[in-house]
Design brief:
Blueprint (H helix, E strand, L loop, with lengths): L3 E5 L4 H11 L4 E8 L6 H9 L4 E5 L1 H8 L13 H18 L4 E3 L13 H11 L5 E2 L11 H4 L17 H9 L17 H13 L5 H6 L4 E3 L7 E3 L3 H10 L5 E5 L7 E3 L5 H13 L9 E6 L4 E6 L4 H7 L2
Parallel strand pairs: 1-2, 1-4, 2-3, 4-5
Antiparallel strand pairs: 6-7, 7-9, 8-9, 8-10, 10-11
Helix pairs in contact: 4-5
Length: 325
């Protein structure tokens, strides 16, 4: 029977090349990629279509959020738990390998390319903790790593695997030319957990709202975020795109504020907030609107029970700076 493999496919150049190297051995490859509120499958889907790779998209939000609150191996520079995240993905992919009777898993990881998650030790830890260490191949660096069961059984020819290491990409770019791969995304990852601003907002959410929902995480992606002391969260749209995104995320119980006649931001207090929160939100709405400087603005304030007009002076720039998350 033809050998079958499961590829953890990100859509980046290394994952493309890993697929090509395995397919060169006449092995059938099924791609798998993952989604959470912090990264999506868009890039992987686009690239998979270009190289005609069948792709399964798996939402691991619940498992990922549970891990994110207390990752065993901690965070990277920001809120990125790369070792634990990769372990989670390989564990999920391993289940698919078992369910589909595939022979092994493989990834596009290159030893030494990333200082936290792709050292020899971290690659070993991830493989071991996934529960599938003997069946995980890194085709681009395999000859620098231990031999796996599929190689020992002759299902994969180790001599046709590679020994790439380090952060340079010259070898990979030459390989892309030889395979006729002319388009591939830049190497920068698409994970929001590596973004300093998003990570700061996420830490604030974890500390103030342990019962947060996926909607609360989605809200972190838009607008300016404010909190006056231990009060409720205030979100102020920065532009029309933010306003439209926030509008779609409004739920019953939220307080929503906008200028009555002048252009300005959509401002929301998830969960409604208290009187102090509403006053602060109204003042921020005026501050970031087209209202004349230091003059009152007329606002439309909508709560669960009612909608009414009110006039407020803008918040001071100093206060806004103190409140911003």
């Amino acid at each position: 029977m033809k050998t079958k493999a499961i590829a953890l496919f990100s859509g980046g150049l290394d994952s493309i090349l890993a697929v090509k190297v395995i397919q060169d051995q006449d092995i059938s490859v099924q791609g798998v990629t993952f989604e959470t509120p912090f990264f999506n499958a868009r890039r992987a889907g686009e690239t998979a279509r270009q190289i005609q790779l069948s792709l399964i998209v798996v939402d691991i939000t619940d498992r990922h959020l549970a891990m994110l609150k207390a990752p065993r191996y901690g965070y990277g520079k920001n809120m990125n738990p790369c070792i634990d995240c990769h372990t989670l993905m390989l564990r999920a992919a391993g289940k698919i390998m078992e369910e589909t009777d595939a022979d092994f898993l493989f990834t596009g990881e290159v030893m030494g390319q990333r200082p936290m998650s792709q050292t020899r030790q971290s690659l070993h830890i991830v493989a071991k903790n996934s529960g599938y260490a003997d069946y995980i191949i890194r085709p681009l660096s395999a000859r620098l790593l231990g031999e796996t069961i599929p190689e020992q059984e002759g299902k994969v020819n180790r001599r046709q695997l590679l020994a790439i290491q380090g952060r340079g990409r010259k070898v990979q770019m030459e390989m892309a030319k030889s395979y006729g791969v002319h388009y591939y995304p830049p190497p920068a990852g698409g994970c929001l957990l590596t973004d300093p601003m998003f990570s700061k907002r996420l830490k604030d959410l974890f500390s103030h709202d342990p019962e947060h929902t996926p909607r609360d995480i989605e809200l972190l992606k838009y607008g300016r975020h404010f909190r006056n002391g231990e009060s409720g969260k205030i979100i102020v749209g920065r532009n029309q795109k933010d306003n439209e995104a926030l509008q779609k995320l409004i739920r019953g119980g939220d307080t929503v504020i906008c200028m009555d006649q002048l252009p300005g931001p959509l401002v929301m207090i998830p969960g409604g907030g208290n009187e102090k929160d509403v006053i602060n939100a109204a003042q921020l709405c005026v501050l970031y609107s087209d209202a004349p400087e230091n003059e009152e603005g007329i606002l439309n304030i909508t709560t669960t029970d009612q909608s009414h007009l009110a006039s407020f002076l803008p918040a001071s720039r100093n206060d806004a700076g103190d409140w911003i998350i």
